[in-house]
Amino acid sequence: MPTSKKRKISCLSGLELELALAQLRKLRSSLVVEELPESDPKPADTFMDEIDSMIGKLESRMNNPLALRRFNVVRKGTLYLQSGAKLREAIAASRDIGSDKLWSNDNMHKHLSFLVNSFTNKNSTSSRMVIDTFFFRTTAMVPPSHKVIVMLENNIPTVPPRVSQMDTISGSIDYTAIFAQSTVAENYIRITPTLSKSNGSEMVAFFAAAIIDNGPLEGHLPQVLLELIAWAKRLGKSHIRGALTTGHKWHFIVVDLDTDGDGAKYWVSELIEWLKAANPFRRGLCRELSVESPSDESEPALIAGILSTWSFEEFNGDQWFVMQPGGGGL
Length: 330
Description:
By secondary structure, the chain is of the alpha+beta class. It is built from 11 helices and 9 strands.
């Protein structure tokens, strides 16, 4: 009788594990479970269980700090929300912008209230409806001479994160928002050009967001950071910003590439959760949600305001965040 052999996965690097996990999570979120009666003679489909098992095994092998350290990607600190009157003033100003447009702050509130009271938030499909709403709102918050174009499922060309290593990174960002003069932005609707250094110089801002619907947000940070770095290199930029989100929970990210092209520094915001269990918004009382609520971060205008004001410029704090060096965790 042949003896059984122990086997282990040893051929995948930390980065390759990240990429494999990202694709498996996307596959898992796209699957739909159909409940069958117990009397149905058909055998149960175990494919979803097998996917869950694979995800669990790969997650158990993850070592996120090493994946970033390998590419000289170093955390510099945390972005904390401004406190008191300064944040309230910024939220109030954000709320007033585009009040005469279709996607005014009031209409954003009404749409979010409808979604919260009509749909569950169980996977990336339902998350997209919430995230869509925030990006719709940003289209009404730019000057008349400019326009926001939102691109979905944008593939990232293969780019080496470090000039001193042969490794490359590629992937797909769920949301890409481009902010540019109207004549330039409209080209992205007509011909969908390949994003590169040539058109990167025409953009005022570029924002990438990744949808997370499985597990804690921090588990996905290394992959998203490397994808942001890849986009910055592709566009010839030294600074780029993005987010990790479930639609309800948000971590905003700032990335500064090293001048020698051999690494990057990043900042991550504290968790911003605009919808909480005790939030009056869940009861459909969207008119009661205001900056005077007990928690400023429970105001949806905060999310829309951040999305509409971030740019390619080096980040040194703004009306939304203060920078605190150091810190651990994410």
